[in-house]
Amino acid sequence: MIINLGQIAYARSGDKGSSSNVGLLLCNKELYNWAKLYITADKVKEHFKDIVKGNVIRYELDNLLAFNFILYDSLGGGGSESLINDAQGKTHGQALLLMEVDLPDELIKHIL
Q1: Considering only CA atoms, which of 55, 39, 42 is closest in space to residue 100?
Q2: Residue in 16, 64, 68 with CA at minimum distance from that of residue 56
Q3: CB distance 102 to 5 below 8 Å
Q4: Does the model's pTM come out above 0.85?
Q5: β strands within the chain, DSSP E
């Protein structure tokens, strides 16, 4: 079943210099174990392809059922350096929750 990631997870994001980070917290261990295989750094980079110019690194936080994604060079120079726009990473968490994922049938019961 195709759903938005926000139907099974929560997110929080921020920025530092020209990069942003997105913390993604899954609702339970079953979803987290699935996400470890499916929500890769490459898929997150593809989702943010219009803004991420550098690498995306994923850190796993097994004890929290969470990931921390670092989106390098995603802010066009950073909030304090950009004169063209107000580039901050505060909205990147909400943007990640819009990512469409194909949730296996056995996990549909966990949709929020």
Answers
A1: 39
A2: 68
A3: no
A4: yes
A5: 2-4, 9-16, 19-26, 56-61, 66-71, 100-102
Per the CB < 8 A criterion, the answer to whether 13 and 67 are in contact is: no
- 9 within 8 A of 79, measured Cβ to Cβ: no
Closest C-alpha to 92, from 41, 24, 25, 36: 24
Both tokens assigned to 46 = 């593809």
| 52-99 per-position pLDDT tens digit | 999 999 999 999 999 999 999 998 765 554 444 446 788 999 999 999
| Count of alpha carbons within 13 angstroms of residue 84, beta-carbon side | 4
First to last CA, the chain: 14
